[in-house]
Amino acid sequence: MVQVGTNPNIELLTYSEVEEVEGSIGNFKVKIRKKQTYIDWDKCTGCGACAEACPAKVPNEFNAGLDTRGAIYIQFPQAVPKKAVIDIEHCLNCAGRKIGTQPKISKKTGKPILAPCEKACPAGACDRSIAWDPEGELIEVEVGTIVVATGFKVMEKERFKEYAPDSPNVLTALQLERLISATGPTGGKLLRPSDGQKPKVISFISCVGSRDQRYHTYCSRVCCMYMIKEARLIKEKYPDIDIYMHFMDVRTPGKDFDEYYTYARELGINIVRGKVGGIEKLPGDRLRVMGYDNDLGKPIEVKADMVVLATAIELPEDAKQLAQKLSLPMDGSGFFKELHPKLKPVETPVEGIFLAGCCQGPKDIPDTVAQAKGAAAAAAVPLAQGKVVIEPTISEVNPEKCSGCGVCVPLCPYNAIKLEQYGDRPRAQIDMTQCKGCGVCAAACPSGAITLHGFTDAQIFAQIEALTKAA
Amino acid sequence: MQVETVNLTQKDRKAVLAQMIEKGGGNLTKCIQCGACASVCPVAITGLPLYCKRLFRFLQTGHLEEILDDASSWACVACNRCTEICPRGVDPFHVVFAFRRIQAQELAIPASATTSLMNFYTTGHAVYGDASELRQKVGLDPVPPSTLKYPEALKELQTLLDESPMAELGLF
């Protein structure tokens, strides 16, 4: 990420969102909103003094809600670029310092009364007197191809009522990941949230929301491995902690993965095959894990101090909005749909737009890197060639016949049709690179002005005739 | 504990499944044996051998005659915790009840269930005991305002039962 930030050929737009995408391969016009940071990033050095001075307390997204951050903050220590932003919704406007107002002058000292963040900033990057536009800045870039890589989110534990989500000692795996991280809320100490004590017994539960008809029918693919990783990290550091891992099935395909799992067993981590049906809260902030051991053939019970839920991977809500802006279809599982599951795994139905990473389906880091390199290469090919090959069986409008009614425009699933001025009135025009030859427009056109090449009336009648001709 | 090898190819899985489908237990095929239902099932927790998950495995592998006389299924209290947490939409409670229907058809009904059925037919109460003294003590009519008090209601109930498939069992 640091290399990306310093590469002269890459323009990194963080804290920005895609608003609108127009055009087609080779000529995409992308409107991007750079959200307002309220900080002069040219001056900000990323020292973090403002974040320490800020008295606001907002749940820290990066630590999965386990601690709080200020309203002015740097998202995480390794952020690129390492710059502060003000979360204006949660800003307390200390000392009455609303953005864009002049400070009051102290009667005692005759100096302006500043907000703590302004006072703390040694670089003068935080100046609340500037009337920053809350809408940020709208920029437009012209690009030839696009790679979509939205990433994923994990399901929140609140959805799973059977697993006592109201207990602070029931964590999602991502929360545990932050809890054992050196930059996490406890500085890397494994302490359970309810009382800050070191847990003696930890249960891991797999397939929470995955492989489950009530939520997602797909396997999230990475949970088995990251659970084993987290369990091993804990067991290797604290061998006295008793760890139970409840699996529906242990899925560890991949190079060296099964060996990694087998070693977890050798370390003394208890692997239990059988899904957990419920968790009950016990006195002393403990939890009764009600499970089943398929190999014993008996219901089992674990009294745990902490429970970790491997919740399912899914796409965030705004990824769906992005799909609409790009006219990309989603599959039944709610991920971006690739053009062909085997032969075109990074391509999409929209020519010039490619997919990489979890937006296309749950996958681990090696698979994501491989797919991202594939997508980058696929996106570079048409740019290098300067031309694209299109299918011959696409639709075409006869502008003389077109009445310009516009019926076809919203029907096109690929956003390929536009009304453009032709002679005295606007008439439909089909972008050859975007048309996939589905024929919806040709079927709907009331004037018969659209032809789907290869499927004209004459051609179809000729086929019928040939098929029905007596032998 | 004795263990014997089962020859799976000798089991008629199709015939067992057909019977289960006929009795409304076709969801049996959806079960992947994850064990979630068994971890909260009162039948399993009280220590009876053929709770939902194990019962389904026996049926999936074509065992029927061997388990027909087991009374575990009759201990199902229809709490539906299994249905609530089943990740595959099996609705285990309904599958257990389908198995019960096969058992009833074969008259593999335990004494406790037979008594309840007969009580139900003769009194209108599946669980029946004489509480007249207790009721009088607390100032209630010794006869409760149910089929016991209204013989015409009991008559209606018996007519319904006579018309139901339960009558074919010949218990009443």
Question: What distance separates the N and C termini of chain B?
Answer: 41 Å
Using the coordinates above, name the CATH class of the domain at 153-314 in chain A: Alpha Beta
Which segments of chain A are poorly predicted (pLDDT under 50) over 5 or more consecutive residues? none
Instruction: Work out the largest interface and the residue count of each chain.
Output: A-B, 21 and 20 residues
| Biggest sheet details of chain A | 5 strands, parallel
- Assembly annotation: heterodimer
Beta-strand percent range of chain B: under 5%
Q: What is the gyration radius of chain B calculated from CA atoms? A: 20 Å
What kind of sheet is the major sheet of chain B?
none
The shape of chain B, in one word, is: elongated
Low-confidence stretches of chain B: none
Shape call of chain A: flat
The tally of structural domains of chain B comes to: 2
**Mind telling me which CATH architecture of the largest domain in chain B this is?**
Orthogonal Bundle
From the 3D structure, determine the CATH topology of the domain at 153-314 in chain A. FAD/NAD(P)-binding domain
Instruction: Provide the helix percentage of chain B.
Output: 40-55%
**What gap, in angstroms, lies between the N and C termini of chain A?**
69 Å
Q: Provide a count of the helices of chain B.
A: 9
Strand order of the largest sheet of chain A: 10-17-11-12-13
> Helical element count of chain A?
11
User: How large is the share of residues in beta strands of chain A?
Assistant: 15-25%
